[in-house]
# Entry
Amino acid sequence: MTIDSPSWGVRQRSPPSSSKLNYGRIDFQSVIGQIGNAIGPSKILQSQTVPVCLPMSETIISVRQVFIDQLRDLYSAETQITKALPKLAKAASAPALKEGFRHHLEQTKKHVERIEALCSALQEKPTGKKCAATAGLVEEGQDAIDEDATPETKDLLLIAAAQRVEHYEIAAYTSAISLAKSLGLKAAVTTLTATLTEEIATDKKLAAANKPALGKAVKSGNEDAKLGESPTSKTFVRTARRLAKEVGFKSPV
# Structure
């Protein structure tokens, strides 16, 4: 079974009857008569149809179509994530976290390739849909990157954003696997399960990385408290010193 792709259809219409057909203020019978007088009635009679171009939307009516829809959603999600991970790695301060993001980037590239292979085997295109959920999660990740925070708290923000993405992917792949099983697509089940296993492992690694990052953030916050400085005021002082140095002014702080 194949999925009908959206197209422009041509609808057959019978020639006008003897009665006048009025559309608004246009008398089609009169118009056709005038054309007939100009080019000859024999040529008018040769055309028995009037092409009408109407947009025809695809209606999802089968489990297979739902499965393809989910694959396209996952493909969009994975391609968006491949663009976001390098930014997360650059923003991270902990070496282990940086390496973790880079490692998952290479995994995600393979996830994209797997979906492409699945769609090719099913004679379907993986493109055609944008995953709005991932777009929102990636935007939240960018907010974490742009946040004015200490290196320790920035890592916590990045981990939280990355785990949200992983949780979405875990749910999406679980649903796709269920659909593949119902269709008897054993190869697809194996491929998608391999990716799901890697996503679950990544989530566990992020949870593990959160512990030392949290410890550093708490320690840094306690030191700031002893000095009578909040993380925000500490950042302000650093910025003030840097700007003062740039303009050659001796900073009093």
In short: The beta strands are 7-10, 22-23, 26-27, 53-56. Helices lie at 28-39, 41-46, 63-91, 95-121, 132-146, 151-182, 186-226, 231-247.
